[in-house]
Amino acid sequence: xxxxxxxxxxxxxxxxxxxxxxxxxxxxxxxxxxxxxxxxxxxxxxxxxxxxxxxxxxxxxxxxxxxxxxxxxxxxxxxxxxxxxxxxxxxxxxxxxxxxxxxxxxxxxxxxxxxxxxxxxxxxxxxxxxxxxxxxxxxxxxxxxxxxxxxxxxxxxxxxxxxxxxxxxxxxxxxxxxxxxxxxxxxxxxxxxxxxxxxxxxxxxxxxxxxxxxxxxxxxxxxxxxxxxxxxxxxxxxxxxxxxxxxxxxxxxxxxxxxxxxxxxxxxxxxxxxxxxxxxxxxxx
Length: 285
What we know:
Order of helices and strands: HHHHHHHEHHHEHHHH
Structural class: mainly alpha
Oligomer: single chain
Distance between the termini: 63 Å
């Protein structure tokens, strides 16, 4: 424990976080929290409040922006909406917002855990690209980190469906949005909070054994929240090999296919990739 304390007191990660907190005006909060709760607990409490605030703002901003994009998708993107998805069922969006907002209080804890693991020296995370051997090594290890995470998320998500207990008590809540008229960008993080954390945990697990750049790791977590908004928008576009929203819409309507996050790769490899004929998903209502 003494070694962990030394690592936490003298590292670039903590210095960066303190700089960010000061930059965005959280100095009074971290001073108060560290005075009342002690340096360690106060420090991580400040990070939690920062994460929760940022995640909440991101959720509402992306929800509003993507709702506008979906409403004008053919003009802006040249993409039609999945059949039945133009008009949303009464109360579905409000239900998604309530569930997402409640779950955000737990979601914001995962990056705090990541920070603690990193600062305590339990991960392979590094701060400067020079520490890994330069740009080429950074690119190669980052691509592999991304692929390891993609495989991890695929199997976590698939297990949440194939394990009856996990599906019934954890994942089924998200799948009450199972038709295009109940799916929207607001459903992006409308999960049982345990569900959302389980599906994001490969980002944490992989960095325990594989090198990843500190800011790249958190940027990927940030992009995951944005991507989740996109894949619940019911738009139909030619996005292959990317797992676009047409695939994820089918996942919600059919349950046993299209478990991947960003790519169709894992579903293709393990035989769970499925997409109906385009004529069927675009057929007029």
